Amino acid sequence: MTPLLGLVRAGLLALAVGAVAGFVLHRLGAPVGWAAVVAVPIAGLVLLVARLPRGADIAWSPLPAHASGATSVQASTLVSRLDEASRDRDRFATRIRPRLRALADARLRQRGVTTLAEGRALLGEDAYRLLTDPAAAMPTPKALSDLLDRLEAL
Predict the structure, then answer these.
(1) I need a labelling partner for 54 at 20 to 30 A (CA). Which of 40, 46, 81, 104 fits?
(2) What global pTM score does this model have?
(3) 58, 60, 45, 35: which is closest to 15 by C-alpha?
(4) Mean of the pLDDT values across residues 87-112?
(5) How many CB atoms lie within 10 A of CB 154?
């Protein structure tokens, strides 16, 4: 992306605008020193704006090698939520278990089972207890992985 103006032109424009600003401030009654102090940031701002790349330029950069974006954000969010849930039973009960139950309900409905109680044999005793027992805590990573594998296999 190319800047609006070249460096020399942008510098000359900034110098001219700064000089005009200093002159106007001096004519309005500001002492020469104060007029110069105020004119320098104005000139710097003009230089910065003149050197900014144009917004309408085409960016010819190659596509990223791997798709990350939302996927990596969701994965990191999931990791932090699982970590919090492993330390706090209430977080497990309010954040993780409802999502696991919804996932299990959806998979069981695909098999024609309408309630978790009816799907108890399909889920297995440990998974059923984890999804229904209010005293159940966050399972170990291996147990959670097994549960998700079992739900995927339904």
Answers:
(1) 40
(2) 0.49
(3) 45
(4) 85
(5) 15
